[in-house]
Amino acid sequence: MNKDQVADILTEIGVLLELKGENPFKTRAYQNGARALEGLSEPLEKVVSEERLDTIPGLGAALQQKITELVTTGRLLYYEELKASLPAGLLTLLEIPGLGPKKAKVLYEKLGISDLVLLKAACESGSVAELAGFGKKTQDNILKGMEFREKYASRHQLHHALAVAEPLLQALRDHPDVSRCSTAGSLRRSKEVIGDIDFVVSSKNPNSVIAYFVQQPTVLNILAQGDTKASVIVSGGIQADLRVVSDSEFPFALAYFTGSKEHNIVMRQRAIARGLRLNEYGLFRSSEETRDPNLLENCQTEDDIYQKLGLTYVPPELREDHGEFAAAEKGDLPRLIEWTELKGSLHNHSTWSDGRQSLEEIVESMNELGMSYWAVTDHSKASFQAHGLTSERVREQIIAIREINLKLQSEGIDFQLLTGSEVDILGEGRLDFDDDLLAELEVVVASIHSGFTASESEMTRRIIAAVENPFVHMLGHMTGRLLLEREPYKVDQHAVIDACAATGTWIELNASPFRFDMDWRLWQYAKSKGVKCVINCDAHRVEHAGFLRLGAGIARKGWLSKQDVINTLPLHELRRELGKKRGQEI
DNA sequence: GCCGTTTTCGGCCCGACTGTTTTCAGTCG
Asked: Would you say A418 and A445 are in contact if contact means Cβ atoms under 8 Å apart?
């Protein structure tokens, strides 16, 4: 059992204990333990076998024992007994907005409600409204929440959230009573999937801003509207929260609502350790509860807050309690990549396979966007469903691309297509094209598109065999995941990263918002091994060039700098790097 | 259940909004 699976079980134990009415600090201890495991940078199995769990903060004797039992036996008696003591459907009640563990416990104990079907029936019969602490309003809200849940998922892909958030942000900026405003939350941190959209605004007239916000045309439903905040549902079923503060409070509110929650907890603890108190209104020179402006540390920006707490500024993408505090204390945070530093994408498709635009249309669009190069890596023949190319068609495409490039050069246009292939990794790590053909291509991406159900060890062997091929420049989408749609296939990513390090193979950060694969949590490890990243659009339409910006956001979450990312290089330097693994000197 | 250079016991991040209550519990972020 790996660290993510163990962390999931610890989190679930925390929730189950809440439903049982356990001490809230005990339930939090399980959640803290889960988080500690998620942040682990080495295989959990190794830590367990070397008996080093006690070196991880947040894991005491009880959790160490439970984690060891899970890792060594794949089971945990305590968890199984706890789970068996409550009906399985009870957990799903917590997915309804407004229903937490306390209310769920009452519903179960008083009405025997143990799943959503029973809950719906009880609401419709009116028996929920008669419970102490409940009422007609609560009952209606539960029904509404269930209806909503059936209609929409509660998590959203980043590009969907951005599509709604950016016009709303612009609208807020345009309002005359708004001084400063920003998105916050997971959107500002550039998480791969978004729960809801957060806005923070400073204004002398909060009510007018809030009234204006809830009347925006994309707002479908108002969940809450007060003097300082509002919550609405916007197009696409995404919840958007607005918080309005005074201008002097703005940096604190922005930091607070940007999170992450884990990052904020450490920030507060740092404040306490300095005899200060941090919340969304300020950094106060008092440990007492107060909002006395005379006790306020003067901070105009988030940067000032970090400085007061002995840290250099931490960019929002790094605020995950993933090592940023240790680095910011020493002033060692990397200068993160900017998406404008990207010069092209090395994994893209055209009408030759399953892309929407022809080579000519791609050239026109990418040149217009100011790209320097664009690799055409259509699918190989095994990807029949994606109209994969035969070796003959690949050779025809090479000729077509060379002709286009010559024409571009003769016209003095500073843009080139690169020939290439996204070659399928077949069983046992064989590639779909032979080495002779791969050697003729400038860019070779190797990806898995079949046999997703193979075991972890088999998949790992397959991928490692592929990256050991000297003609493969980079590994495409490491896990094949489709965010919110398809689980990743099982693969030992650390072992693959090690193999890439040993062979000089690059790893793709697939910038499609459906993938964002390899996951940002692994890039620090890859970087430590000297493995380079390639931020690729995997474009199937020319509009997908916009994914570069999203991909750069994810790369920033992975602590990557310009020099860690191959496609920040100008064309002549890129060509030199492409030749290296093949032993060519250019 | 975890943690500790004033503590091995007594803390654990904290404020806004809602709905149900007459002063607050639950939920959420």
From this structure: no
Q: Which nucleotides of B are covered by protein (CB under 7 A)?
A: 1-4, 11-21, 25-29
Given this model, what pLDDT does residue A585 score? Answer: 61
**Helices A101-111, A116-125: crossing angle, 10 deg rounding:** 70
Query: What is the mean predicted confidence (pLDDT) over A22-41?
Result: 84
A225 touches strand B (CB under 7 A): yes
The residue that minimises its CA distance to C1' of B24 is A133
Helices (H), A448-583: 456-467, 493-503, 523-528, 547-557, 571-580
SS3 readout for A186-241: HHHCCCCEECCEEEEEEECCHHHHHHHHHCCCCEEEEEEECCCEEEEEEHHHEEEE
- CA distances A284 to A175, A267, A290, Å, are 31, 13, 8
Distance A301 CA to B18 C1' (A): 33
- pLDDT, tens digit (0-9, with 9 covering 90-100), for A442-458: 999 999 998 888 889 99
Q: How far is CA A458 from the centre of its chain?
A: 27
Residues 239-298 in A having a C-beta less than 7 A from any atom of strand B are 239, 241, 257, 261, 264-265, 268-269, 277, 279-281, 289
Q: How confident is the model at residue A132 (pLDDT cuts 50, 70, 90)?
A: confident
- Which nucleotide C1' is nearest A36 CA? B2
Give the CA A225 to C1' B25 distance in Å: 20
Report residue A32 as tokens: 């803290």
Please tell me whether any atom of strand B lies within 7 Å of the Cβ of A129.
Answer: yes
pLDDT in tens, A186-214: 999 999 999 899 999 999 999 999 999 99
Question: Is the omega angle on the peptide bond into residue A208 within 30 degrees of 0, that is, cis?
Answer: no
How far apart CA A489 and CA A479 sit, in angstroms, is: 5
E strands within A263-361?
Answer: 277-279, 282-284, 344-345
Question: Residue A509 — pLDDT band, cuts 50, 70, 90?
Answer: very high
Mean pLDDT on A535-559:
96
Instruction: Report the C-alpha gap between A550 and A162 in whole angstroms.
Output: 10
For residue A177, the Cα-to-chain-centroid distance in whole angstroms is 34
What pTM was computed for the model?
Answer: 0.81
